[in-house]
Amino acid sequence: MAHENTAASSRRRDMALRPWLAHLEATGRLAIMNPGIKLKHELGGIANRLDGRKATLFPAAGDSNISVISGLLSDRNWMAESLGLDGAALLEVFQKAAAKPLPWTEIKDAPCQQVVHDDGDLLSRLPIPTHNEHDSGAYITAGLLIVRSPATGIQNVAIHRLQVSNARELGVLLLPRHTLAFFNEAEAAGNDLDVAIVIGADPACLLASQAIVPLNMDELEVAGALGGAPLEVVKCIGSEIRVPANAEIVIEGCIRANARAPEGPFGEFPQYYGERAERHIIAIDRITHRHDPLFHTIVGGALEHLLLGAIPREATILDTIRRTFPSVKDVHLALGGVGRYHLYVQMRARHRGEAKNVIMACFAAHYDVKHVIVVDEDVDIHDPRSVEWAVATRFQADRDLVIVSGAQGSKLDPSTDDGYGAKMGMDATVPIGAPEFRFTRIRVPGQDEIDLEARIDPSVTLAALQGWSAQSGGGSRR
Ligand code: MN
């Protein structure tokens, strides 16, 4: 096993951030804007207009001399491509990386520390945009927040929304997950918790930060496994935290013990605002960055936001339900369900009732899953029209519907009572034992093999066709 890792470390399979941008440009997927685009709403508006079609680069954004980038991973296939993978392999590679992370290697003289600022109005050095209408102000939205467990020293990496409260303070929403668990340990002992915020990380780091892995697993090691070789890291100047050496910008500071301040509202992935409340505070000590750094921003609710959450969850959900149901082939968190709430499942059901058991397993796999639709292997779960066709023609509500009342759901779903709500599953598979011909999908034999180019004659026009007249046949209009 050891020699495998050594061999892999000679060359990463994934692309670092700057080569990925260059690749997007070379393939017509990067739009470069005029300098000085306004940080408040204009930048987010442009990024949204091009969302899913082109990544955006804003040279010297606002009145800064730093450029902003957005929409780098706003398509599922782009994510796979940035990792050097085929789209179909994405979930499997993600599962393997989460199961078998690769320890990082430490270097000195890292690009992310070429320039160091440790005095002045630190956050005012960065071009931090304001995106949605009722956001409380400017937010850092694509920052990998890294902390270390006070007990074990093992790192955690996650993306949290970070409100610019003043020139040296951020308001941070810590949901009840790993960052908060580490902070609570520190605060119980009366201590602040050191933090590093990494902006402009490589695609593998961004994706790995969303991996659903156990506490005390450093997501930077998942990034190494995702990219095919150990990630290079560097020690922060003011703490023991290791950050990706190749990053564009690093903010060093601490989450303050026994201090809270208002944060929010902020436009979130369900296309609604997360509310304003008393939240944790990060005090900033220092900012380090590359020469001419790039500032990455994710527009709240844009495809990059939806997909970064969806794909790692798909990998985890698939892994979980396959342990009991190997008949499940694939899962997809549909974008219409904001990449969290609507799960489409493709399976080969062999037993009566099996699809309903799969529905129940899906509800248990992640509390955000709200509606589940199970279909057969002839249905493309990445095509919502195909899934709807299965519901239209294979589903009977009195026979195939599962409803669970009063379950835990997403607190950001405004139709729930603070996350307390209902689940619904639809079994849209063909009933076991149904006559085969009844559910045979129509098709024209040989259709896909026809060489269409060879059959089209571009030299002939309508007028040249013998017997053709543009006049309607009867000569009189009705
Ligand atoms: Mn974690």
Secondary structure layout:
Blueprint: H1 2-9, H2 17-26, E1 30-32, H3 42-49, E2 55-58, E3 67-70, H4 76-82, H5 90-99, E4 105-106, E5 115-117, E6 139-140, E7 143-148, E8 155-159, E9 162-166, E10 169-172, H6 178-188, E11 193-199, H7 203-208, H8 219-227, E12 232-235, E13 242-244, E14 249-263, E15 266-267, E16 273-274, E17 277-289, E18 294-296, H9 303-324, E19 328-333, E20 342-347, H10 354-365, E21 371-375, H11 384-394, H12 397-400, E22 401-408, E23 420-427, H13 452-455
Parallel strand pairs: 1-2, 3-18, 4-12, 20-21, 21-23
Antiparallel strand pairs: 2-3, 5-17, 6-9, 7-8, 7-11, 9-10, 10-17, 11-14, 12-13, 14-17, 15-16, 19-20, 22-23
This protein binds manganese (II) ion.
What small molecules accompany the polymer chains?
Answer: manganese (II) ion
Individual helix count: 13
Content-based structural category = alpha+beta
Number of strands: 23
Q: Biggest sheet, in brief?
A: 9 strands, antiparallel
Average pLDDT score:
94
Spans where pLDDT lies below 50 across 5 or more residues: 1-9
Keywords:
globular; 23 strands; alpha+beta; disordered N terminus; binds manganese (II) ion
In short:
The chain has helices spanning 2-9, 17-26, 42-49, 76-82, 90-99, 178-188, 203-208, 219-227, 303-324, 354-365, 384-394, 397-400, 452-455; strands at 30-32, 55-58, 67-70, 105-106, 115-117, 139-140, 143-148, 155-159, 162-166, 169-172, 193-199, 232-235, 242-244, 249-263, 266-267, 273-274, 277-289, 294-296, 328-333, 342-347, 371-375, 401-408, 420-427. The chain is an alpha+beta fold and 478 residues long.
